[in-house]
């Protein structure tokens, strides 16, 4: 349980220089066939259509859909099977359990935006869901897209050379993705009547702070979203990047379910339902124990002065938890969750003054390579480490050579090959996908556009569902501060058909959003909401809109407007962002 060592999987499967799949990962992947499981008189869960499950509640006056998958093509396949099972009923309500893409972006494969707009279909979620969609999925959208693509192996070929499994369910297939904002929200335990059925919507902060569980009181069935992530040790951190997931909040939520709610069935939206009282008690107890163990032991070693990587090297789950069928490290791992607990509680600072004022990466690489005997010596040592199966040590040495010469193909290819060797040996699909995606970044396939296949966290259809103010406010994080110098200019945005008049005030190096435009404006623009739709889809831009007359100048000059918009970068396409090539 406490020992200092590098990851176990490498030694468990050492013959990894050639493409291959760790046998434990292959066995895990085989569990996820497509099926519809009935968990109560009214509740049915669709598994294996997409990375996340969805559930259908058969209510007297219609169907209630809980969660909506990651994309619309898979959602349409699921809807066809739902309609075959319930030919006389329509989906009249949707409940999002939380804001993650795999639970919301397929919604228009199930219901239409016009039916939601007319009130024919209600959409329910936690009151904070929109905040997280705009701040997390869209605000850090470009890098989240890149990192999610690495986590889920979006650009990798399928099979033993590349993607095998996502850990939680099927991969993110490419396909249309959109979003319909909630029409109704809750922020505390609330009984609602949907389609003639009384349900409870219960906040259960755990994987995310906006998690909502759906409780059917008559049958004591609890749909738990991602509070339980299926048959895997939970992802207390995701490699993609995430706000802090407080482990003991998560434990408190599970304990409330175990001791207070005491449901007869627990239906997670990854993995399989639990419908037996003994199984529920066994799984929930083991799950919360694994989280508390990780938290408590991490804090124990934090208090002894150890850093995040040191603690991650010390801890493994106790044997009875490590062997539990719901706690294999097929999504979360202790190794990548422990540092997140450290950072969540202590922040990033290691305590070493060197880390307060570190050398720039290229400078450190130059000094280290010189100290190690020069480029050729390092390359030779890396090659020897690779031959001995010490893949990450090879990759670590080769990182210096890539930093010295980021465009040099021999170091990039050697490092890519070392990362592939490591990746094939991993049983955790996130680690495998990440390593192989980094190898692809360093050594992209020739004459092949697959490296450009990236997940887009907030595609235009999602951003377009935001209130106009959120779209405008998002510009502030693309301000090219080096070009703005001492400029102070305030631009009004009058969205005529919505009766909104926002403003952005560029005050030297900061751009402040005003929900209500101030009285004095240097430039004032008016346009219809539909212009923003064209803008976020990339069909136009502000300058083109002004020139075409879609954006009308009510005050100021076109030159002043153009100079203002020139201060902002366009959004980055995820495939242009490098993580390991410098
Ligand atoms: Zn999920």
Structure description:
38% of the residues lie in helices and 15% in strands. It contains 22 helices and 17 strands. It has helices spanning 8-12, 23-29, 72-85, 101-104, 113-117, 129-138, 141-152, 247-261, 277-302, 308-314, 319-322, 334-346, 361-371, 375-387, 391-404, 409-424, 429-442, 460-463, 468-473, 529-536, 542-548, 558-565; strands at residues 35-38, 43-47, 54-59, 62-66, 91-95, 122-126, 184-186, 190-194, 197-203, 212-216, 221-225, 265-268, 488-495, 500-507, 510-514, 523-527, 552-555. The relative contact order is 0.11. Strand 14 and strand 15 form a beta hairpin. It has 2 domains: 8-346, Metallo-beta-lactamase domain (Metallo-beta-lactamase, Chain A), CATH 3.60.15.30; 467-565, Nonspecific Lipid-transfer Protein, Chain A (2-Layer Sandwich), CATH 3.30.1050.10. The strands form 3 sheets. It has a 7-stranded mixed sheet with strand order 1-2-3-4-5-6-7, with no helix packed on it. It has a 5-stranded mixed sheet with strand order 8-9-10-11-12, with no helix packed on it. It has 582 residues and is an alpha/beta fold. The model is unreliable at 8-15 (pLDDT under 50). It binds zinc ion. The site of zinc ion has 6 residues, from helix 4.
């Amino acid at each position: 349980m406490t020992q200092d060592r590098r990851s176990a999987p490498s030694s468990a499967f050492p013959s990894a220089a050639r493409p291959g799949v760790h046998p434990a990962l292959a066995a895990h992947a085989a569990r996820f066939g497509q099926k519809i499981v009935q968990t109560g008189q009214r509740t049915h869960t669709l598994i294996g259509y997409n990375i996340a499950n969805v559930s259908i509640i058969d209510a007297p006056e219609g169907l209630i859909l809980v969660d909506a998958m990651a994309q619309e093509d898979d959602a349409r396949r699921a809807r066809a099977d739902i309609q075959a099972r319930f030919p006389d009923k329509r989906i009249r309500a949707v409940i999002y359990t939380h804001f993650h893409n795999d639970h919301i972006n397929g919604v228009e494969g199930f219901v239409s935006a016009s039916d939601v707009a007319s009130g024919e279909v209600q959409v329910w979620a936690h009151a904070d869901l929109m905040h997280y969609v705009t701040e997390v999925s869209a605000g850090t959208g470009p890098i989240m897209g890149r990192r999610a693509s690495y986590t889920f192996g979006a650009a990798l070929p399928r099979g033993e050379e590349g993607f095998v499994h996502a850990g939680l369910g099927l991969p993110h297939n490419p396909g249309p993705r959109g979003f319909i904002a909630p029409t109704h929200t809750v922020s505390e335990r609330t009984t609602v009547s949907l389609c003639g059925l009384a349900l409870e919507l219960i906040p259960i902060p755990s994987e995310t702070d906006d998690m909502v569980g759906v409780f059917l009181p008559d049958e004591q069935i609890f749909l738990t979203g991602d509070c339980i992530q299926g048959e895997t040790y939970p992802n207390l951190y995701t490699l993609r990047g995430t706000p802090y997931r407080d482990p003991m909040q998560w434990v408190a939520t599970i304990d409330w379910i175990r001791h207070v709610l005491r449901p007869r069935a627990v239906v997670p939206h990854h993995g399989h339902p639990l419908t037996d009282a003994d199984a529920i008690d066994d799984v929930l107890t083991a799950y919360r124990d694994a989280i508390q163990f990780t938290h408590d032991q991490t804090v124990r070693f934090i208090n002894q002065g150890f850093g995040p990587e040191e603690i991650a090297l010390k801890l493994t789950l106790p044997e009875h938890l490590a062997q539990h069928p719901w706690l294999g490290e097929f999504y979360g791992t202790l190794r990548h969750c422990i540092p997140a607990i450290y950072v969540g509680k202590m922040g990033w600072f290691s305590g070493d003054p060197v880390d307060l004022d570190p050398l720039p990466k290229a400078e450190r690489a130059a000094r280290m390579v010189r100290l190690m005997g020069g480029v050729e010596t390092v390359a030779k040592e890396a090659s020897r480490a690779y031959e001995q199966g010490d893949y990450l040590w090879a990759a670590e040495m080769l990182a210096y050579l890539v930093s010295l010469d980021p465009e040099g193909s021999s170091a990039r290819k050697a490092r890519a090959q070392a990362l592939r060797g490591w990746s094939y040996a991993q049983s955790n699909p996130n680690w495998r996908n990440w390593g192989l995606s980094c190898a692809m970044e360093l050594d992209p396939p020739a004459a092949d556009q697959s490296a450009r296949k990236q997940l887009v966290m907030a595609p235009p259809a999602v951003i377009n569902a935001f209130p106009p103010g959120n779209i405008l406010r998002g510009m502030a994080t693309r301000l090219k501060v080096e070009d703005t110098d001492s400029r102070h200019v305030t631009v009004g945005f009058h969205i005529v058909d919505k009766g909104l008049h926002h403003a952005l005030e560029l005050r030297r190096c900061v751009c402040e959003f005003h929900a209500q435009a101030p009285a004095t404006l240097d430039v004032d623009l008016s346009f219809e909401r539909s212009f923003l739709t064209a803008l976020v889809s990339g069909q136009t831009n502000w300058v083109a809109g002004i020139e075409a007359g879609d954006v009308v100048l009510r005050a100021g000059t076109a030159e002043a407007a153009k100079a203002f918009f020139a201060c902002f970068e366009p959004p980055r396409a995820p495939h242009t962002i490098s993580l390991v090539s410098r």
